[in-house]
Write a structure and sequence with these properties.
- Strand 2 (60-66), helix 4 and strand 3 form a beta-alpha-beta unit.
- The chain contains twelve helices and nine strands.
- Helix content is 39%, strand content 16%.
- By secondary structure, it is an alpha/beta fold.
- The protein has helices at residues 5-8, 33-40, 42-56, 70-83, 101-109, 129-141, 170-176, 233-237, 244-252, 256-261, 272-276, 283-310; strands at 19-24, 60-66, 87-92, 124-128, 147-154, 160-165, 186-189, 197-198, 211-215.
Amino acid sequence: AGFPTHVKYAVPPGKKLEYVVLNAAECEPYLTCDHRLLCEETSLVLEGLLAMMRAAEVERGFIGIEENKPDAVEALRKEIRRRKAPVDLVVLATKYPQGEERMLIKAILGREVPRGGLPIDVGVVVNNVATAAAFAAYLRTGRPLISRVITVTGLVARPQNVRVRIGTLLNEVVDLCGGLVGTPRRLVYGGPMTGPAGYRLNVPVTKALSGLLVQGEEEVRPEMPVACVRCGRCLEACPYGLVPAFLATHVELGEEEKAEQIGLLECRECGSCAFVCPSRRPLTQIIKEGKAAVAARKKEEAAKSETKEKEPVTTS
């Protein structure tokens, strides 16, 4: 998600870091870049995790991986045995969104991150596979993060995982994969559940970009949303126990403060609610807009407060 790694390890006063968890679940459909890193650069990934554990001064680490990656599981087991590493490999059920850090912590350790809290509140730091590999590469060579592996799939001639320099334009990456085939209808920068949609390839690869999905007519059928029928499917699908339909309704009515009171900022934008909605309401997009509105309001309030504090005090 692009959250700075060093901030995660700056443990605030009163908190204690007990475990480092490596997120190898990669539950987003289509994406396989982490899977290939685990299979082809296993030593680098585990070395990065062990270095993170040393930096955090913890004695035990965990790797959470879904059971649909048996080759990666075997590679990790061999490397853990070879190094005699104090790391537990936890093979999890294949389900979405298993890779979201709060879900992963609960599945591995049985600990629940409190509402409004962070993993450090339960003594855990979670890092991604690519972060661990990049950290190990830095320690070995002194090379900063200048490239990453991304998945290029969908309507391309040769779908594959490629390592590209950060800043490379996506149209160059697509050319490397043989170019587009068919008639693209939508580009997704990342996975189909959480990645933003776009319509241009002349955008650069960033540190946080995990893939490019090119979708065609069959996958992008325009459907007009209709009124909510209150079926409760979004409630059943939400892994965080929220009621997405109510959140979206409050946002649509301009009632972001009410939405915030019932958990707007707890949404991790996994897209499950929009995927199951029979009314085809773009719930995730509406919730994103509501969160942006709340952030803008708080920024404005903070700016006003700062200005007020700087105002000179006059006396009569």
